[in-house]
Amino acid sequence: MNAMVPESQRNDDPARQIVYLTNVYPAPSHSFIRREIRALENAGWTVHRFAHRTCTGGLIEPEDILEQTKTRVLLDQPRVNLVLGVLSRLLKEPVAFFRSLFMSQKMVIKGDRRWVAHVAYFIQACSLAKQMKQLGCRHVHVHFGTNPAAVACLASQFSGLSYSATFHGPHEYDPELKLNLDTKIQHARFIAAVSRAGKQTLDRLYPTYQDKFMVVPCGLDESWLQRQRHAISTGADKPNDYFLTIARLDPQKNIPMLLDAVKQLTERDVAVRVLIAGDGYLRAELEQYIDRLGIGEQVELLGWQTQDQIHRLLDNARAMLLASQGEGLPIAIMEAFAHRIPAIATDVGGVNELVINETTGWLVSANDAASLATAMEDCLTSRPARLKKMGDAGRKLLDGHQVAHSQKLLSDAFTVIHGQY
């Protein structure tokens, strides 16, 4: 849906307005962005949501459906409007127009040389700049250092506009992807990393810009932090004997490794059950792999679930599983800790800032199905008191991962930026 710019919003105080831009919003895997936006609004900011495109898989979470009605989609408008957006920038700000266009061409040459994609980024940047000026909004904050950062960086070349970004990792930091991070960082007012590990990577790769980097972790809101854990039960016929994974079905989440671990446990006659909440383009391939391994009775792909459904699944789960090859700071682990259940996860990205081995769960090596299987078996044979102690430790760790804290850090940074106009 492409929300129009209401007349009543055009006279809002520019010092308390912000644009949020994401590649796809809302989306089932972007609930952390929704929480961040809501927290900023509760703090008195007017947040205008923008996205490159809509979620193609459909939305089931009521809050996401509501967010969709508030979101302007840059590519969801008649082509003539996109052309007019480009022409309006050319006629009104010719110098800035060619400055932005030149930057776009440099990004193509230095980057992945996808000319068509970068033309699309430039067109969206012109549209974004035009709409921001209509709103009287001066600053755009983006999530992800990929195409949203490219569009916002180009838009910031127009007079009176600026941008900042939150980088999640790990793919943003991969030099093989040629994402022009140096250019994006150079022109950003600040770059937020969601984990200490992410900031350390930025400090190492781009030492010239260290003063622009800050840690702004994703966090949970009160609806999660007030959860109470159900009692942990034992026995093969009890509900707490399944593991839960909440993940997109894509290569980064490395679900095949998790399935290999389940297969190893079944070969050792260990009773195990895994529920996977999430969806993605690898679903059909994973269903075939489950059939080949003969673990259809042990593993169930649930598809995307609503927040209420996730709460119920977590209430009765024994532990959270995460087999990723790369991560930023996984919200799924925080959600497990909110329910006071431990996590078993690969030691990648910022995961070890949440999962402390033998304290809040089990850390295992990436791409090591045998280690994952061993940790799962240890969890299955652990007494309830041990699991409760781990879950309580995880819940205590969440004191430093509340969206109210993230909002405060961002609000302070946005206030400084607006004060410089």
Question: What descriptive keywords fit this protein?
Answer:
single chain; 421 residues; alpha/beta; Rossmann fold; 2 domains; 7-stranded parallel β-sheet; 6-stranded parallel β-sheet
Give a quick rundown of the structure.
This protein has 421 residues and is of the alpha/beta class. 44% of the residues lie in helices and 15% in strands. The strands form two sheets. It has a seven-stranded parallel beta sheet, with helices on both faces. A six-stranded parallel beta sheet has the order 10-9-8-11-12-13, sandwiched between helices.
Walk me through the structure:
- By secondary structure, the protein is an alpha/beta fold.
- It has two domains: 7-219 and 402-419, 3-Layer(aba) Sandwich (Rossmann fold), CATH 3.40.50.2000; 223-400, Rossmann fold.
- Helix content is 44%, strand content 15%.
- The chain has 16 helices and 13 strands.
- The chain has helices spanning 31-42, 62-69, 79-92, 94-110, 115-135, 147-155, 181-187, 196-205, 222-225, 255-267, 283-293, 307-315, 331-338, 369-381, 384-397, 403-419, and strands at residues 17-24, 46-53, 71-73, 139-143, 162-167, 191-193, 213-215, 242-246, 273-277, 299-303, 319-322, 343-346, 361-364.
- A seven-stranded parallel beta sheet has the order 3-2-1-4-5-6-7, sandwiched between helices. Strands 10-9-8-11-12-13 form a six-stranded parallel beta sheet, with helices on both faces.
